[in-house]
Protein backbone atom coordinates (compact mmCIF):
# COMPACT_ATOMS: atom_id res chain seq x y z
CA UNK A 1 0.00 0.00 0.00
CA UNK A 2 2.77 2.41 0.98
CA UNK A 3 4.65 1.47 -2.16
CA UNK A 4 1.62 2.32 -4.29
CA UNK A 5 1.20 5.70 -2.62
CA UNK A 6 4.87 6.41 -3.16
CA UNK A 7 4.61 5.55 -6.85
CA UNK A 8 1.50 7.70 -7.21
CA UNK A 9 3.12 10.73 -5.59
CA UNK A 10 6.45 10.23 -7.41
CA UNK A 11 4.52 10.26 -10.68
CA UNK A 12 2.56 13.39 -9.79
CA UNK A 13 5.70 15.23 -8.64
CA UNK A 14 7.34 14.34 -11.93
CA UNK A 15 4.27 15.85 -13.63
CA UNK A 16 4.82 19.13 -11.76
CA UNK A 17 2.49 18.74 -8.75
CA UNK A 18 5.07 20.51 -6.57
CA UNK A 19 4.51 21.86 -3.05
CA UNK A 20 0.72 22.20 -3.04
CA UNK A 21 -0.64 24.00 0.01
CA UNK A 22 -4.33 23.18 -0.14
CA UNK A 23 -6.28 20.17 -1.36
CA UNK A 24 -9.87 20.52 -2.53
CA UNK A 25 -12.45 17.82 -3.20
CA UNK A 26 -15.33 18.90 -5.41
CA UNK A 27 -18.75 17.37 -4.85
CA UNK A 28 -21.51 16.41 -7.26
CA UNK A 29 -22.55 19.36 -9.44
CA UNK A 30 -19.78 21.53 -7.99
CA UNK A 31 -17.14 21.64 -10.73
CA UNK A 32 -17.14 25.32 -11.66
CA UNK A 33 -14.47 26.26 -9.12
CA UNK A 34 -12.00 24.88 -11.64
CA UNK A 35 -12.69 27.83 -13.92
CA UNK A 36 -11.25 30.12 -11.25
CA UNK A 37 -7.91 28.31 -11.10
CA UNK A 38 -4.83 29.25 -13.06
CA UNK A 39 -4.24 25.67 -14.11
CA UNK A 40 -0.65 24.52 -14.48
CA UNK A 41 -1.19 20.78 -14.73
CA UNK A 42 -4.09 18.47 -15.19
CA UNK A 43 -4.02 14.67 -15.17
CA UNK A 44 -6.87 12.29 -15.79
CA UNK A 45 -7.31 9.74 -13.00
CA UNK A 46 -6.92 7.04 -15.63
CA UNK A 47 -3.31 8.15 -16.19
CA UNK A 48 -2.24 8.22 -12.52
CA UNK A 49 -0.60 5.00 -11.31
CA UNK A 50 -2.74 3.17 -8.71
CA UNK A 51 -5.43 5.86 -8.68
CA UNK A 52 -8.98 4.48 -8.65
CA UNK A 53 -10.96 5.28 -11.80
CA UNK A 54 -14.03 7.53 -11.72
CA UNK A 55 -17.23 5.80 -12.79
CA UNK A 56 -20.10 8.23 -12.26
CA UNK A 57 -20.51 9.88 -15.63
CA UNK A 58 -21.08 13.41 -14.35
CA UNK A 59 -17.69 13.32 -12.66
CA UNK A 60 -14.87 14.09 -15.00
CA UNK A 61 -12.19 12.33 -12.94
CA UNK A 62 -9.22 14.69 -13.10
CA UNK A 63 -6.58 15.89 -10.70
CA UNK A 64 -5.84 19.56 -11.25
CA UNK A 65 -2.89 21.59 -10.02
CA UNK A 66 -2.60 25.35 -10.14
CA UNK A 67 -3.01 28.65 -8.32
CA UNK A 68 -6.18 29.86 -6.64
CA UNK A 69 -6.29 33.07 -4.58
CA UNK A 70 -2.49 33.16 -4.66
CA UNK A 71 -1.99 29.65 -3.24
CA UNK A 72 -0.97 26.39 -4.84
CA UNK A 73 -3.92 24.02 -4.84
CA UNK A 74 -4.70 20.49 -5.94
CA UNK A 75 -8.28 19.83 -6.88
CA UNK A 76 -9.93 16.45 -7.11
CA UNK A 77 -12.58 16.88 -9.75
CA UNK A 78 -14.57 13.72 -9.21
CA UNK A 79 -14.53 11.74 -5.99
CA UNK A 80 -14.92 8.06 -5.20
CA UNK A 81 -18.00 6.83 -3.38
CA UNK A 82 -18.58 3.62 -1.44
CA UNK A 83 -21.81 3.20 -3.40
CA UNK A 84 -19.86 2.79 -6.61
CA UNK A 85 -18.27 -0.33 -5.15
CA UNK A 86 -14.94 1.18 -4.13
CA UNK A 87 -13.27 0.07 -0.92
CA UNK A 88 -12.69 2.48 1.96
CA UNK A 89 -9.01 2.55 0.94
CA UNK A 90 -9.91 3.55 -2.63
CA UNK A 91 -12.43 6.16 -1.49
CA UNK A 92 -9.71 7.91 0.53
CA UNK A 93 -6.74 7.28 -1.75
CA UNK A 94 -6.88 10.82 -3.17
CA UNK A 95 -6.74 12.31 0.34
CA UNK A 96 -3.67 10.24 1.18
CA UNK A 97 -2.09 11.22 -2.13
CA UNK A 98 -2.65 14.95 -1.61
CA UNK A 99 -1.36 14.68 1.96
CA UNK A 100 1.77 12.91 0.80
CA UNK A 101 2.29 15.64 -1.80
CA UNK A 102 2.36 18.10 1.10
CA UNK A 103 -1.03 19.82 1.40
CA UNK A 104 -1.55 21.47 4.79
CA UNK A 105 -5.30 22.02 4.55
CA UNK A 106 -8.14 20.00 3.06
CA UNK A 107 -11.37 21.60 1.83
CA UNK A 108 -14.30 19.39 0.92
CA UNK A 109 -17.60 20.13 -0.76
CA UNK A 110 -20.58 17.88 -1.25
CA UNK A 111 -24.25 17.80 -2.14
CA UNK A 112 -26.50 16.73 0.72
CA UNK A 113 -30.14 16.47 1.66
CA UNK A 114 -31.53 18.76 4.37
CA UNK A 115 -32.83 16.82 7.36
CA UNK A 116 -33.18 19.93 9.47
CA UNK A 117 -36.27 21.37 7.80
CA UNK A 118 -35.49 24.92 8.84
CA UNK A 119 -32.66 24.64 6.31
CA UNK A 120 -33.72 25.13 2.72
CA UNK A 121 -32.84 23.75 -0.67
CA UNK A 122 -29.97 25.84 -2.06
CA UNK A 123 -28.55 26.76 1.38
CA UNK A 124 -24.91 26.10 2.20
CA UNK A 125 -24.03 24.33 5.44
CA UNK A 126 -20.62 24.21 7.07
CA UNK A 127 -20.19 20.80 8.69
CA UNK A 128 -19.54 21.02 12.38
CA UNK A 129 -19.49 17.28 13.12
CA UNK A 130 -20.59 14.01 11.56
CA UNK A 131 -22.24 10.66 12.11
CA UNK A 132 -20.60 7.75 10.35
CA UNK A 133 -23.54 5.59 9.23
CA UNK A 134 -21.61 3.91 6.43
CA UNK A 135 -20.94 0.71 8.33
CA UNK A 136 -17.17 0.81 8.00
CA UNK A 137 -14.01 2.78 8.55
CA UNK A 138 -11.15 3.78 6.24
CA UNK A 139 -8.82 3.02 9.18
CA UNK A 140 -9.86 -0.64 9.56
CA UNK A 141 -6.87 -2.41 8.05
CA UNK A 142 -4.06 -4.48 9.49
CA UNK A 143 -1.13 -2.07 9.17
CA UNK A 144 -2.97 1.18 9.91
CA UNK A 145 -0.36 1.80 12.64
CA UNK A 146 2.15 2.62 9.90
CA UNK A 147 0.01 5.64 8.98
CA UNK A 148 -0.98 6.91 12.44
CA UNK A 149 -2.77 5.87 15.62
CA UNK A 150 -5.16 2.93 15.26
CA UNK A 151 -7.56 4.42 17.79
CA UNK A 152 -7.53 7.88 16.27
CA UNK A 153 -9.47 10.43 18.26
CA UNK A 154 -12.27 12.35 16.56
CA UNK A 155 -12.33 15.34 18.90
CA UNK A 156 -12.25 17.98 16.20
CA UNK A 157 -12.41 16.38 12.76
CA UNK A 158 -13.60 19.71 11.33
CA UNK A 159 -11.24 22.57 12.11
CA UNK A 160 -12.91 25.11 14.37
CA UNK A 161 -10.45 27.71 13.13
CA UNK A 162 -11.35 27.20 9.46
CA UNK A 163 -15.05 26.99 10.26
CA UNK A 164 -14.76 30.31 12.09
CA UNK A 165 -13.14 31.87 9.02
CA UNK A 166 -15.88 30.44 6.79
CA UNK A 167 -18.57 31.89 9.02
CA UNK A 168 -17.00 35.34 9.08
CA UNK A 169 -16.50 35.31 5.29
CA UNK A 170 -20.14 34.30 4.84
CA UNK A 171 -21.27 37.14 7.08
CA UNK A 172 -19.13 39.71 5.27
CA UNK A 173 -20.58 38.59 1.94
CA UNK A 174 -24.23 38.20 2.95
CA UNK A 175 -24.19 34.45 2.41
CA UNK A 176 -26.63 32.55 4.55
CA UNK A 177 -24.32 29.81 5.87
CA UNK A 178 -25.99 27.16 8.00
CA UNK A 179 -23.99 24.99 10.36
CA UNK A 180 -24.66 21.43 11.42
CA UNK A 181 -24.14 17.72 11.65
CA UNK A 182 -23.72 15.64 8.50
CA UNK A 183 -24.69 11.99 8.45
CA UNK A 184 -22.77 9.90 5.95
CA UNK A 185 -24.81 6.98 4.59
CA UNK A 186 -23.67 4.28 2.18
CA UNK A 187 -26.20 4.81 -0.65
CA UNK A 188 -26.74 4.76 -3.52
CA UNK A 189 -30.46 4.44 -2.78
CA UNK A 190 -31.96 7.45 -1.09
CA UNK A 191 -33.40 7.05 2.38
CA UNK A 192 -36.76 5.57 3.29
CA UNK A 193 -39.31 7.58 5.21
CA UNK A 194 -38.32 5.65 8.34
CA UNK A 195 -34.65 6.43 7.76
CA UNK A 196 -35.36 10.15 7.36
CA UNK A 197 -37.36 10.00 10.61
CA UNK A 198 -34.46 8.23 12.30
CA UNK A 199 -32.05 10.93 11.10
CA UNK A 200 -34.36 13.61 12.49
CA UNK A 201 -34.43 11.82 15.85
CA UNK A 202 -30.63 11.65 15.76
CA UNK A 203 -30.64 15.44 15.34
CA UNK A 204 -28.75 15.31 12.09
CA UNK A 205 -28.92 18.42 9.90
CA UNK A 206 -27.92 16.97 6.54
CA UNK A 207 -27.41 13.57 4.89
CA UNK A 208 -25.14 12.52 2.07
CA UNK A 209 -23.13 9.65 0.67
CA UNK A 210 -19.57 10.93 0.86
CA UNK A 211 -17.16 13.02 2.94
CA UNK A 212 -17.08 10.99 6.18
CA UNK A 213 -14.26 8.57 5.14
CA UNK A 214 -12.25 11.47 3.67
CA UNK A 215 -12.54 13.45 6.90
CA UNK A 216 -11.66 10.45 9.09
CA UNK A 217 -8.47 9.93 7.07
CA UNK A 218 -7.64 13.65 7.21
CA UNK A 219 -8.03 13.63 11.00
CA UNK A 220 -5.89 10.50 11.22
CA UNK A 221 -3.19 12.29 9.23
CA UNK A 222 -3.51 15.44 11.39
CA UNK A 223 -4.56 17.35 8.32
CA UNK A 224 -6.77 20.37 9.18
CA UNK A 225 -10.00 20.02 7.28
CA UNK A 226 -13.31 21.75 6.61
CA UNK A 227 -16.33 20.68 4.61
CA UNK A 228 -19.28 22.58 3.18
CA UNK A 229 -22.51 20.97 1.96
CA UNK A 230 -24.85 22.39 -0.62
CA UNK A 231 -28.32 21.36 0.50
CA UNK A 232 -29.92 20.13 -2.69
CA UNK A 233 -33.21 18.72 -1.43
CA UNK A 234 -35.42 18.82 1.63
CA UNK A 235 -35.91 15.44 3.24
CA UNK A 236 -39.30 15.70 4.86
CA UNK A 237 -40.59 12.23 5.75
CA UNK A 238 -44.12 13.63 5.75
CA UNK A 239 -43.81 14.87 2.16
CA UNK A 240 -41.48 12.47 0.44
CA UNK A 241 -41.07 13.14 -3.28
CA UNK A 242 -39.39 10.87 -5.84
CA UNK A 243 -35.66 11.55 -6.14
CA UNK A 244 -34.69 13.75 -9.05
CA UNK A 245 -30.93 13.60 -9.58
CA UNK A 246 -31.13 16.21 -12.35
CA UNK A 247 -32.75 18.59 -9.88
CA UNK A 248 -30.07 17.84 -7.26
CA UNK A 249 -27.36 18.71 -9.78
CA UNK A 250 -29.22 21.85 -10.89
CA UNK A 251 -29.62 23.10 -7.30
CA UNK A 252 -25.95 22.37 -6.59
CA UNK A 253 -24.99 24.37 -9.70
CA UNK A 254 -27.18 27.31 -8.69
CA UNK A 255 -25.70 27.44 -5.19
CA UNK A 256 -22.18 26.98 -6.47
CA UNK A 257 -21.19 30.66 -6.90
CA UNK A 258 -21.65 31.07 -3.11
CA UNK A 259 -19.41 28.06 -2.46
CA UNK A 260 -16.79 29.39 -4.89
CA UNK A 261 -16.76 32.77 -3.17
CA UNK A 262 -16.42 31.14 0.27
CA UNK A 263 -13.54 28.90 -0.82
CA UNK A 264 -11.69 31.66 -2.71
CA UNK A 265 -11.86 34.07 0.22
CA UNK A 266 -10.98 31.33 2.67
CA UNK A 267 -7.88 30.35 0.71
CA UNK A 268 -6.61 33.93 0.91
CA UNK A 269 -6.83 33.72 4.70
CA UNK A 270 -5.21 30.33 5.39
N1 LIG B 1 -29.82 11.61 0.83
C1 LIG B 1 -28.58 11.16 0.66
N2 LIG B 1 -27.70 11.77 -0.09
C2 LIG B 1 -28.05 12.90 -0.70
C3 LIG B 1 -29.32 13.42 -0.56
C4 LIG B 1 -30.24 12.74 0.24
O1 LIG B 1 -31.38 13.15 0.40
N3 LIG B 1 -29.37 14.55 -1.29
C5 LIG B 1 -28.15 14.71 -1.86
N4 LIG B 1 -27.37 13.70 -1.50
UniProtKB/TrEMBL annotation:
Residues 22-268 form the Nucleoside phosphorylase domain. GO terms for molecular function: purine-nucleoside phosphorylase activity. Transmembrane segments: none annotated. It comes from the Bacteria. It is an enzyme of class 2 (transferase). Keywords: Glycosyltransferase, Transferase. Pathway: Purine metabolism; purine nucleoside salvage. Pfam families: PNP_UDP_1 (PF01048). CDD domains: PNP-EcPNPII_like. Gene3D superfamilies: Nucleoside phosphorylase domain. The purine nucleoside phosphorylases catalyze the phosphorolytic breakdown of the N-glycosidic bond in the beta-(deoxy)ribonucleoside molecules, with the formation of the corresponding free purine bases and pentose-1-phosphate. Belongs to the PNP/MTAP phosphorylase family. This is Purine nucleoside phosphorylase. It comes from Pseudotenacibaculum haliotis.
Amino acid sequence: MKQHLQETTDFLRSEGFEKPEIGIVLGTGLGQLIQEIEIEKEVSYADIPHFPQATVEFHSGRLIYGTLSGKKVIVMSGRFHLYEGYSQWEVTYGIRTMHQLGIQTLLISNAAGAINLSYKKGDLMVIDDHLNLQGGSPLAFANVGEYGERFADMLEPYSKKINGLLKSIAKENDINLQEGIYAGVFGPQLETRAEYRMLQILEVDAVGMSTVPEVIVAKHLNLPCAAVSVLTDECDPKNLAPVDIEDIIRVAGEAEPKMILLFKELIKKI
